[in-house]
Batch of 2 targets.
Target 1
Amino acid sequence: MLIANISPRSMGKTTDTGMMGHAFHEAGYAVQLWDADESEHLKQWSDLAGFPFPVKCNATAKFAEEYTPLGEHGIDIVDVGHTENHPHIADSVLKVADLVLIHMEPSMADYQRVHQPRTSTPVKTMVGRSAFDRPSREAPPMWVLLNRVRPVVRSEGEIRNLLIDADYNVLTVKIPVLDEIKQATGFTVERASRGPFGELVTELQTRGLVKSV
Ligand SMILES: Nc1ncnc2c1ncn2[C@@H]1O[C@H](COP(=O)(O)OP(=O)(O)OP(=O)(O)O)[C@@H](O)[C@H]1O
Ligand SMILES: [Mg+2]
């Protein structure tokens, strides 16, 4: 299955994609990552750190036609470039994604950028309209993952409620703002499954959003 990690702009996607890849790998899944961002940050991280699974690049509007999935029991995860600047790549990924995760901080700035952007199409609209291009004629399930969450921040509850009121599904697990996560990019990742990314794998399994191994 293909998990698409998307956000309108820089919102922690590459970090979350690399860490999720390791957490799924440590949980026993066959994993393949896709870098669909022209910056190729994920690929560079993998080259520097030696990820124990493949990372392939395809930052094009042909992603849907060209990507080769691992198969039914594998987990493919794609780090999609900014939907604000590269909607054609996101539209292509959304044709074949089985699950969409929106990555954002629980801040009003990120909420507005996701839900009511001034100069781009909202992510939810992009996901909804992808139904027309999919064999099932149904949009993929879409969940919000709150990341870079500061301890005891009042806005977390407020943003969670705003999202839920606006009909978003919001994962219970959140990714805290942590120096060790900030500094993960570029380095070898160890024991990703012991922290919040392991909890994320468990929540995705429990909700039936990914199959258990
Ligand atoms: N949980 C975290 N705690 C602390 N810092 C984080 C965390 N997650 C990401 N960061 C930092 O936030 C910044 C943005 O993260 P990242 O590059 O993963 O976002 P992105 O959405 O891929 O951005 P872009 O769209 O520009 O590629 C980076 O400096 C990263 O180190
Ligand atoms: Mg990135």
Target 2
Amino acid sequence: MTVQIHQRSAVLEAFRAAGIRQVLTDPVEVAIFAKDACPLDQAMPAFVVVAESADDVVAAVRVCNRFSLPFTARGAGTGISGGAVPVEGGVVISLAKLNRILEVDPENRCAWVGPGLVNLQLSEHVRPYGLHYAPDPSSYMVSTIGGNVAENAGGPHCLAYGVTTNHILGLELVLPTGEVVTLGGKAAEYPGFDLRGLVVGSEGTLGIVTRVLVKLTPNPPELRTLLISFRSLADAAAAVSAVIAAGVIPVALEMMDRPCLEVIEEYVHAGYPADAEAVLIVEVDGLPGKVAAEAEQVAQIARAHNAVEVRLATDPEQRARLWFGRRAAFGAIAKLKPNYYLHDFVVPRTRLVEVLTQIRTICEKYGFVPLNVFHAGDGNLHPLIVYDYAEAGAYERALRAGQEIIRVCIAAGGTLSGEHGIGIEKRDLMPLVFSPEDLAAMRRLKRAFDPNNLANPDKLLPLETAGQEAAH
Ligand SMILES: Cc1cc2nc3c(=O)[nH]c(=O)nc-3n(C[C@H](O)[C@H](O)[C@H](O)COP(=O)(O)OP(=O)(O)OC[C@H]3O[C@@H](n4cnc5c(N)ncnc54)[C@H](O)[C@@H]3O)c2cc1C
């Protein structure tokens, strides 16, 4: 249920009476919160609560319960699966102002932070302690820790260090009915259900995270970054599998194809080779002896797979330039067309070439050239389809191509998402990878947390028809 016209002033009054100072209702201000970075959907909320404290979040959730209003948590709105798109006429609860670092505990290598803290700011803050926060989504300059938790975000350096869930020790959660619980904490192990683990990746459907206890990782004593270029995508992909099979787990193993390299090079001049069909950025870290040996091993494997150039970044500036190019990819493509549809799947590494070839064929059928920049080490593909929304039929063609690509990835033994989540985008595709029993169990779990079905209710799980509802 969404807010009725006659209820608007009563709801607004209830927010104010609960002590919430900032509630946006002006359509111009509210419109900013109607969508995230996913091109598929948008919806106007009736209210945006700009929370200034965890108490504001509790108060807002309780008002939503009183008026049966669906609510959607929002960090920076960089999500790509529509997770932060509100229900039309519902409530957005913005966490962006809960961005403080509440406690740094260097001895226990952890910190309590607000959910609105921007990812990169955390690592910058703890650098004097020789520590950093390892999960580094490419959006790390803007996306929030709360959004990263809700999406179980990954990033280039998650291959060896693990994705977000491996770095979250505890959470404070406002349940969808307004109670506050603390899950996990500084102790190494907690008995009972791992509710912390359950909430990570739950896309705001089980409540709103108001504090996060993150694990901090020591900065490595040494690291080496290699740029390796190939004349064929197949050679690059084979080198990726061979590196992992040899037992080397680089901290990062990223791949970019030629269309992507061309546009990045034109945009930021990262120094990428102009004639390569594919490049790998490989980074190894650890103690100096181990790093030197692993870098050499990676170089040898690459040469054995026909690498045309193996370039070692010799100083921090060169390394930063290589990474800057990689991270600038999504901005660079604006040079091509104003809109893009970015996909996110995981396929077995051994099937990378086959799937990339099929993706290209599908895109060409619909008149697009795909760009590929992705976490090759864990088979996490990110084909990008660039289009111009103003061009008649282009958006619809991009969607149809996307649907076909998803099915190809699933048929290759892949899964729906590596890190961007399900949101609205892939909600109705969940039956492709989960049985009716699996989905029913997930629904029962959602109801246990959210009996009134108000917390981001239309995300993650396929929408139920009346008949299905009755069956569960
Ligand atoms: C250019 C670009 C590059 C990207 N690269 C990566 C990448 O490398 N890896 C990756 O994983 N993702 C990437 N993303 C996707 C996106 O940045 C991540 O999903 C990120 O974690 C979202 O954070 P956010 O603060 O923007 O969250 P939002 O988009 O605001 O919200 C995302 C979801 O989290 C929920 N949520 C937000 N805050 C809370 C909270 N406090 N409590 C409960 N639920 C909450 C929302 O309801 C929504 O469902 C990229 C996006 C862009 C635009």
